[in-house]
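Sequence design from tokenized structure. All designs in this work follow the same two-part layout: the structure record, then the generated sequence. An example of the structure record is given first.
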């Protein structure tokens, strides 16, 4: 329980902002995307989607295939409670929207749909993108798919499956962006990463959620950083960004967002 708090205090001591970042690629990403204060019209759709979930008091039976929830112990949960305690925050949904828009990501994979708050944000970020999102719980998957249909988000395909099986059945298309947002266990995270390496290209970006969830997740993050195919990483505490740009020297950044 204390690990994330202690890790955050250490993060604050070593983190910085755009000042002192000498990589043009990383500097532009920070100033033009991560720190972008523009009020995009689509943000109102993000708010509406989250409000609808927070006002949905329907109960569903939840099956956690990964590390589970720290905040919710019962398997029978209200959709509103899941949205409040475990859903992607509005700040992070906006950031996902900007990232997809900034990189013009066309082929996107998400591991861990949950209620689809982050998925919707990515779908709005590029309406032409093809998004495959994998959710292990059939009840959550069904409910979220219905929400996407109501929103008219036809560019999102919801796959109800465990991650390992679904990843093996993906087509051969290279991926522009992968959001690892489920199963916060170190061994599983590393396995997914290794399996999906074959689908990277020079401009792919992989985003790992909750890299300080546990000591094991942080160790997995450190292993990923040292992988020979990885050239640039950005640690924002809640997310870890991984890039494979061959023209970049290997460098690791710790940035407050």
């Amino acid at each position: 329980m204390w690990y994330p708090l202690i890790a955050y205090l250490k993060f604050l001591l070593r983190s910085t902002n755009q000042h002192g970042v000498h990589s043009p690629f990383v500097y532009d990403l920070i100033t033009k995307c991560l720190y972008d204060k523009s009020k995009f019209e689509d943000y109102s759709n993000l708010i509406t989607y989250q409000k609808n979930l927070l006002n949905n008091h329907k109960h569903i039976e939840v099956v956690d295939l990964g590390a589970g929830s720290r905040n919710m112990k019962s398997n029978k949960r209200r959709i509103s409670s899941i949205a409040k305690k475990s859903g992607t925050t509005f700040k992070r949904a906006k950031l996902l929207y900007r990232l997809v828009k900034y990189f013009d990501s066309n082929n996107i994979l998400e591991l861990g749909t949950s209620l689809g708050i982050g998925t919707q944000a990515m779908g709005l970020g590029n309406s032409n993108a093809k998004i495959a999102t994998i959710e292990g719980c059939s009840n959550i998957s069904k409910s979220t798919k219905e929400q996407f249909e109501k929103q008219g988000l036809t560019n999102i395909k919801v796959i109800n499956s465990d991650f390992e099986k679904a990843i093996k059945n993906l087509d051969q298309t290279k991926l522009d962006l992968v959001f690892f947002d489920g199963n916060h266990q170190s061994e599983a995270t590393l396995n997914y990463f290794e399996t999906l390496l074959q689908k990277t290209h020079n401009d792919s970006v992989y985003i790992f959620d909750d890299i300080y969830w546990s000591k094991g997740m942080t160790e997995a993050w450190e292993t990923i950083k040292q992988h020979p195919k990885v050239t640039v990483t950005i640690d924002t505490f809640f997310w870890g960004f991984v890039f494979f740009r061959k023209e970049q020297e290997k460098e690791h950044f710790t940035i407050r967002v």
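Residues 68-72 have pLDDT under 50 and may be disordered. We note this feature because it recurs in several other targets discussed in the main text.
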